[in-house]
Write a structure and sequence with these properties.
heterodimer; A: 208 residues; alpha+beta; globular; disordered C terminus
Chain lengths: 208, 71
């Protein structure tokens, strides 16, 4: 069974913001809501690094744990989605999320919060696939079309890659081996490899 | 006897140190979602659906396309 994840390669991201723009355009996301954004560390300093951040569809999602109305669910492909009909816009998920993924559109005067909106991994939500309702509430359902999230598919430098964790970990491994760099790279030890894989799946094997 | 009481006290004190699971599995209370491969495109064929996604993910690997990967 697939476990859909992202990897953003900080060595490749050029902070073009095309991923964020593509996401906004694809799902017709309103002002003030950013399902994806690019974060730059040490901006303007030589050696600055950028990464594209959105919902990471955590394996053990804190948003799911804190939601008082239990509106989150996980699909067969391990994508974390939520039911907007149930969401009360309390904002607990926003405080729980380490990535700042949950977004809240302004729903009225005095900063009244609307229902939570977040990256759906382009997988829509709990409505009939490709329906008008699904698009209105959650955006386009590319996964049901057999496509990956647009942000990753159109990334010009392929800094952002999406797909089954096993596949994208292999892609990243190939990159690391080709660059001639090792495990000091961001994310290599922490991203998407089981502990048992880390021993055998190191660069030594790739260079052999 | 002294050792027995010491062990008993230690057991009683340490009993509070075990970890209590705090993440109780919560049921999803919302609407049921349709499987992404249930539509006309995949006609419920999960394997075909996963193969399609894996092929697209592989397409993100330009080293595979150009054959420039370090062997």
């Amino acid at each position: 069974m697939a476990r859909m994840k992202w990897i953003c390669d900080a060595e490749r991201c050029i902070e073009c913001n095309a991923c964020a723009t593509a996401c906004k355009n694809e799902h017709e996301i309103p002002w003030g809501v950013n399902r994806r954004r690019v974060v730059t560390l040490n901006d303007g300093v030589p050696g600055e690094r950028s990464i594209s951040v959105a919902c990471m569809h955590c394996t053990d999602a804190p948003c799911m744990a804190v939601c008082p109305v239990d509106c989150f669910y996980r699909t067969d492909d391990q994508i974390v989605l939520h039911d907007k009909d149930l969401c009360i816009g309390c904002g607990y998920c926003y405080y729980a999320c380490p990535f700042g993924a949950p977004q809240f559109p302004q729903a009225g005067a005095f900063g009244l919060r609307g229902k939570m909106d977040k990256c759906t991994y382009c997988a829509g939500g709990p409505e009939e696939n490709f329906s008008v309702e699904e698009f209105r509430k959650y955006g386009r359902n590319r996964i049901a079309e057999g496509k990956l999230p647009l942000c990753a598919e159109m990334c010009s430098t392929k800094a952002l890659i999406a797909g089954d964790s096993a596949v994208i970990a292999k892609i990243y491994k190939t990159r690391v081996a080709t660059r001639g760099k090792g495990e000091e790279l961001w994310g290599w030890k922490t991203a998407y490899l089981a502990a048992s894989d880390k021993v055998s799946d190191n660069l030594g094997e790739a260079n052999a | 006897m002294k050792t027995f009481y010491a062990a008993l006290c230690a057991a009683a004190v340490l009993a509070a140190c075990h970890e209590i699971p705090q993440d109780k599995a919560k049921p999803y209370a919302g609407k049921e979602d349709v499987r992404p491969y249930a539509g006309d495109l995949f006609k419920g064929d999960k394997q075909k659906f996963e193969q399609t996604l894996a092929a697209r993910a592989d397409h993100e690997n330009e080293y595979l396309r150009t054959g420039d990967a370090k062997k």
